[in-house]
Amino acid sequence: MPTLILSMSLFALAASLSPGPVNLVALHSGLHFGLRRALRHVTGATLGFTLLLVLIGSGMEGLSAIVPRLTELLRWVGMGYLLWMAWGLSRSDGPGHERAAPLPPSFWRGALMQWLNPKAWIASAAGVSVYTADGGAALTVLFIVLFFVICYASLASWALLGARLGRRVMEQRRLQWLNRLMAAGLVIAALSITLI
Fold first, then answer.
1. Is the pTM of this model over 0.85?
2. Which residues of the chain have pLDDT under 50?
3. Could you give the CA distance from residue 50 to residue 30 in angstroms, rounded to a whole number?
4. Alpha-carbon distance 99 to 127, whole Å?
5. Which long-range contacts (CB under 8 A, 24 or more apart) does 49-55 make?
6. Which of 22, 119, 136, 145 maximizes the CB count within 10 A of its CB?
7. For the chain, which residues make up each domain, given as ranges?
């Protein structure tokens, strides 16, 4: 059992900590609004992902068989949403100098991002099929609890990194470059959705 818990934890860590759109928004939120306010996004994204994991763990993956176009629709809607966020981020020049002010962190936007994020769907489906298929409800609950804790800690670390960078990079020119770099990351994430 300890080996299984370690394996589940490493899977959750790799899926949660690796750069992706939700993590970039956590970084951006910490950078522009500080850690406390960024935790709204972190909490929403973690709970949104956990709800997705619970539903997939309880058999919702059969929905894709019923609605074959669900994955394709999710891919295009998610890509559009990421591109819209990248556009807004690329236009942000920093506190007090925005052409387009960055959206403040939101619980609901964080949760919505997970539901529009194909990476979250794939990680949920893969994790459930690998770790809980033969283990029953107790193993599913264990996987969900581990993933919740690791996901929250991972996203919070991105927000903390943003808050720390925000204290050091308050010069407008540096913020512009950092915002554009994060926007480019979101564009790459959006375009990579087409490869899934």
1. no
2. 67, 96-99
3. 22
4. 41
5. 49/114, 49/120, 49/124, 49/147, 49/151, 50/144, 50/147, 50/148, 50/151, 51/111, 52/114, 52/115, 52/120, 52/121, 52/124, 53/124, 53/127, 53/128, 53/143, 53/144, 53/147, 54/144
6. 22
7. 2-193
